[in-house]
Write a structure and sequence with these properties.
By secondary structure, the chain is mainly alpha-helical. Helices cover about 70% and strands about 5% of the residues. It has one domain.
Amino acid sequence: MTEQRIDQRIAPTTLIAILVSMTAALVFRAWLQMTLLQRGVAPQMAADLSYLVVPPTLMFFLLPIWRTERQFVAGQFRPANLTGKLVIIGIAIGVMLRLLWWTQLVAGVSFGVYASDPQSAVGPTFAFGCPNIATMALGILTTVLLTPVIEELIHRAYVINALLPRGRSIAILGSAVVFAIFHRSGAWVFACLAGVAFAWLYWCTRSLWLSLIAHATFNGLTLLDWRCVSGQWNPRAADIPLIETGITALTIMLATVVALVATLYRISTEANNRPGNRFLKER
């Protein structure tokens, strides 16, 4: 049976239209979020409710494009490409990326790269407590489900295929840079590195499933951090550097990097050894 082709040449005008539409949707979302905050809506609820306008706004602007590319869009989510093994690997990659974020943060604080707030408690003190079910459910909908689907479809499927005529490296790095730009400036470096990993997963599998699962896992762990964990850790300037803590964090970070690179290399190797570049296809 002939396999469905899911990669195709994306015209520059199409890519520009998609990125402009994404920008417009996020601007609309920011305006709505500010409006909700001014009306007394809690910050978390305002952030989540405002994001719900992004999917319909994109659909409104991009429906003419997606109507002509239904096969391309549907091909990114072919059920046959979603396997149990793929789910496990995607979750593992998402966990490793989140662990990298935490270890770099701990190492940065330990060695004084990130400045501490002298007005806050020294700590470390941590507590765990999630908001109500409705708030968490809305957060999961927006952060774990909607955001990864939208970002993976745009930044991986469209940006990579639009840049592909310029070469694989340009396509992967370009998509990662564009992905990072759509995040807050303080997260640009990490978002770009994560974007490279997601782009590599897409390149190897020619499907959004693996990068989508890894992205959703990372976002889900981030959601738990932001909403269920509260803590203080602001070492005194006189106590920095915290050598033991910093070295431990760097050791874990290095081990995680090695594990992540090894996983990406294995994915690449298995993909290259499969007919039609179909990685993790069930036999």
